[in-house]
Every structure is written in structure tokens, then in C-alpha cells.
């Protein structure tokens, strides 16, 4: 089984925000594109916290939009900057609630 694990994206709801001089959305999109080109085929994508830097609902909407065409199951585990309630709201078809977060299917 092949798994891609991405951690600490520190995304913002505002796609123009930067974190330590880097635009997190652009950075994540580059990582995902690189994974598609060089690592596939994969079985799962795991994204662990901190997904959000700003803890806003818009951050998880942005993540959902970025992953909308991802070809494998996606699993998300929130970190200390994340709001699990927003993740559940934005991804209502989450497949399983687990101790430190939850897993979702897109």
C-alpha cells in the first residue's frame, strides 16, 4: 500500500495570506501536483494538522476545493490550530470519527 502523508499546511481562508513568507495554498498545490507526477499510483492521501493557521471555516472550504479531484481516498487529522467542527461541517460525508480527528471521503 502506498500512502502520501502531508503535514502542517498552515492554510488560510484568504488565499493571499502568507505564513513565514510562503503562500501555503500555492505550496500545497505544488506538493499535490508533484505527488501526482512523481509518486503515483497511491492508495491514500493523509493530511495531518496543522491544516489551518487561522482556524477559519474558509480554510477547510479551500482545502475541499483543492482536493475535489484527488483520485484516492483522503484522510484528515486536525492539529492544534484546527477546528474539527468546521472540518465536519465542510466535509459532511466524513467516513469515520477517530480520537484525534477524523477521516473523510471526497
Strand tally is 5
Q: What value does the Rg take, in angstroms?
A: 13 Å
Biggest sheet architecture: 5 strands, mixed
Uncertain runs: 95-101
Cross-sheet strand order for the largest sheet:
1-2-3-5-4
Number of helices: 3
Helix content: 25-40%
Average pLDDT score? 85
Helix-strand sequence: EHEHEHEE
What is the structural class? alpha/beta
Strand content bin: 15-25%
What best-fitting shape do the alpha-carbon axes yield? globular
Distance between the termini: 20 Å
Model description:
The chain is an alpha/beta fold. Helices cover 31% and strands 22% of the residues. It contains three helices and five strands; from the N terminus they run βαβαβαββ. Strands 1-2-3-5-4 form a five-stranded mixed sheet, with no helix packed on it. Helix 2 (57-67) links the parallel strand 2 (44-48) and strand 3. It is globular, with a radius of gyration of 13 Å. The two termini are 20 Å apart.
Write the layout of secondary structure elements.
Elements: E1 3-7, H1 24-38, E2 44-48, H2 57-67, E3 74-77, H3 84-90, E4 94-98, E5 101-104
Parallel strand pairs: 1-2, 2-3
Antiparallel strand pairs: 3-5, 4-5
Keywords:
single chain; 106 residues; alpha/beta; five-stranded mixed sheet; 3 helices; globular
Amino acid at each position: 500500500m502506498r500512502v502520501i502523508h502531508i503535514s502542517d499546511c498552515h492554510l488560510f481562508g484568504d488565499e493571499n495570506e502568507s505564513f513565514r513568507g510562503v503562500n501555503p495554498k500555492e505550496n500545497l498545490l505544488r506538493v499535490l501536483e508533484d505527488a501526482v507526477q512523481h509518486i503515483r499510483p497511491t492508495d491514500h492521501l493523509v493530511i495531518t494538522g496543522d491544516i489551518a493557521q487561522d482556524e477559519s471555516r474558509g480554510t477547510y472550504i479551500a482545502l475541499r476545493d483543492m482536493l475535489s479531484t484527488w483520485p484516492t481516498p483522503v484522510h484528515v487529522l486536525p492539529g492544534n490550530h484546527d477546528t474539527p467542527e468546521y472540518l465536519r461541517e465542510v466535509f459532511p460525508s466524513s467516513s469515520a470519527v477517530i480520537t484525534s480527528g477524523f477521516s473523510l471521503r471526497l
